[in-house]
Design goal:
The structure holds 2 protein chains of 2 kinds. By secondary structure, chain A is α+β, with helices and mostly antiparallel strands. Chain A has helices spanning 51-58, 188-197, 204-225, 236-249, 255-260, 263-270, 275-287; strands at residues 26-36, 39-48, 62-70, 75-80, 84-91, 97-107, 110-113, 127-129, 134-145, 159-163, 172-175, 182-186. In chain A, strand 3 and strand 4 (75-80) form a beta hairpin. Classes of the chains: A alpha+beta, B mainly alpha. Chains A and B meet through strand 3, strand 4, strand 6 and strand 10 of A and helix 1, helix 5, helix 9 and helix 10 of B.
Chain lengths: 288, 249
């Protein structure tokens, strides 16, 4: 559940994203998860540093809840949680892809509420919170739950080269937006060559150099353009490339990578510099 | 029998080449798939058991919804949100049903391509596609409304299936419908209301969804009890009825 933090409300909401209170912490952090057999164990910490609000929870005037929602599987549930460290077991089969979690403070009915740490705007006022109304919310965390044992070390597992009948002029195009993999669409005549040689190790550097490096440059340019928004961070191909770069260049898909290296350098590094081998193999074939 | 699905690469190949294969989606036989994918078996077998029960394109939506859901009731949410499963079932077991139920009775080629993409594959975001795919929508409508505590567990499914496009899509597009503790009282109360007031229009139904979403800005709807949800709806229904009455006068 994504609550809008810029929503104007006629009463104060306790949230790290708002300034309706001064110096009160209500946060959800140290979020971690383990998928074991068919169970997803969520671990997280909830902090509240205000005695008045803790007292309202102890008096059962406020409920401290964790809201869990997986848009892809239409799973949505609430769970009662505690201040401090929590561990929660969820059914793994209910969730796939993004799981959004946030902690909320929900009123059980509070009348004439005021607080000495209200923002000046609310000071000298008191408020009534009816049953079920939102009193506070934390940051929203998104964790990515993947079901298949994805091989994060294998760059080739995130590339698909397919025959594309509508391509004119033997061209190739790349699609990284619509799926978890990077799709290279090749004109049938190009694809036919690829299909004939794809399992032949001699031709692998040539395939990498002529098809995959240009596609990777295109993908890296898109990542670079959207690095602030992390537009593609939830894609499987992004996670694999990130991990591969950390292993090979000691730096993942972040701003400083693109400041230090050209896209063509990064693409070659991911594929372990295949261009030299491509030329060598072609010249060996010619000399045969 | 085990469910067969489309492996990722085959799915991408078929989906990206709909334009080239568009006329094949009129054929009684699906053997063109082997030829196009250059393989003798383009499908992969899952571990999910399945009692195949043919759907009939001439039957009502609710009949097909019940039939499909009962044969696949054991699917998990995770499995049922996978495009490979529905694309596999559409191109294999349910091919004959699909070409008739979602026949290409369209003039423009662009529309036909989009129609195939929407019904045989996931054409939109992962969540919306569950409701627009020609088979997945049957399973998900039943999954979200099936209530084993009722004498007829499909009571709410039948109610919403009377107008899937006008009422079902907007309702299931609202996040509150993902929680049964909110959805069941919402549907049950409106069904009861309509039993004695059968003239609730599509627009009025949408106003009620909007009202719930408005309340969702202030309340965590998941925590509201049935009585509170009934009160929200009753107040809005009174307003709707008053407006209607004023317009008539």
């Amino acid at each position: 559940m994504l609550l809008k933090n810029n929503k104007l409300m006629p009463y104060p909401i306790l949230s790290p994203q708002r300034d309706d209170y001064h110096n009160i912490i209500f946060s959800l952090d140290s979020v971690d998860f383990v998928m074991q057999n068919k169970t997803l164990e969520l671990k997280f910490n909830v902090s509240i540093n205000d005695a008045n609000i803790i007292h309202l929870i102890e008096e059962n005037k406020l409920r401290l809840l964790l809201h869990t929602e997986c848009p892809q599987t239409k799973y949505r549930e609430i769970h009662t949680i505690l201040i401090g460290e929590n561990s929660l077991l969820l059914q793994g089969s209910e969730i796939n892809g993004k799981l959004e979690i946030s902690s909320l403070l929900i009123s059980n009915g509070i009348n004439g509420y005021s607080h000495p740490k209200f923002n000046n705007l609310f000071r000298d006022f008191s408020f009534n919170f009816t049953d079920g109304s939102i009193f506070g919310f934390s940051e929203v965390y998104t964790v990515i739950i993947t079901k298949e044992n994805e091989d994060l070390n294998n760059v080739q597992s995130i590339m698909s080269i397919i025959k594309y009948e509508n391509t004119q002029g033997e061209k190739i195009t790349v699609d990284y937006d619509t799926r978890e993999k990077i799709i290279i669409k090749a004109h049938p005549s190009v694809y036919q060559y690829y299909y004939s040689y794809k399992t032949n190790k001699t031709f692998e550097p040539l395939i990498f150099s002529s098809l995959i490096i240009p596609a990777l440059i295109e993908v890296l340019a898109a990542v670079k353009d959207t690095i602030e928004d992390q537009t593609y961070a939830t894609k499987k191909w992004y996670r694999v490339l990130d991990k591969s770069l950390i292993k090979k260049m000691k730096i993942g898909l972040e701003k400083s990578l693109f400041e230090r290296y050209q896209l063509i350098e990064i693409a070659q590094s991911i594929l372990e510099f295949p261009i030299g081998d491509a030329f060598k193999n072609v010249s060996n074939i010619i000399e045969r | 029998m085990k469910i067969k699905f489309l492996p990722e690469n085959t799915l991408i190949l078929l989906k990206e080449n709909i334009d080239y294969n568009v006329e094949k989606y009129r054929l009684e036989d699906n053997d063109w798939i082997c030829k196009f994918t250059e393989t003798t078996n383009p499908f992969a077998q899952s571990n999910i058991e399945f009692i195949f029960s043919e759907l009939n394109p001439n039957d009502s939506e609710i009949t097909n919804i019940k039939k499909l859901f009962l044969s696949l009731k054991h699917l998990t949410r995770s499995q049922a949100s996978d495009e490979r499963l529905w694309a596999g079932l559409s191109h294999d077991f349910f091919w004959k049903f699909m070409i008739k139920r979602w026949d290409l009775n369209r003039n423009k080629r662009g529309e036909m391509i989009q129609y195939i993409k929407k019904n045989y594959f996931f054409a939109h975001g992962k969540t919306r596609s569950l409701m627009t795919n020609g088979l997945a929508r049957y399973w998900w409508i039943a999954k979200l409304t099936f209530n084993e505590n009722l004498n007829d567990p499909f009571t709410l499914t039948e109610y919403i299936s009377k107008d899937i496009n006008g009422r079902g899509f907007p309702l299931f597009g609202s996040n509150f419908s993902n929680n049964k503790n909110v959805l069941f009282p919402f549907l049950f109360h409106l069904k009861k209301y309509e039993d004695s007031n059968p003239n609730l229009s599509r627009e009025q139904f949408l106003e009620l969804i909007k009202e719930m979403n408005l309340y969702g800005g202030k309340y965590l709807l998941d925590t509201l009890n049935e009585e509170k949800i009934r009160t929200i709806l009753d107040n809005k229904l009174k307003e709707i009825s008053y407006k209607e009455h004023s317009n008539v006068n």
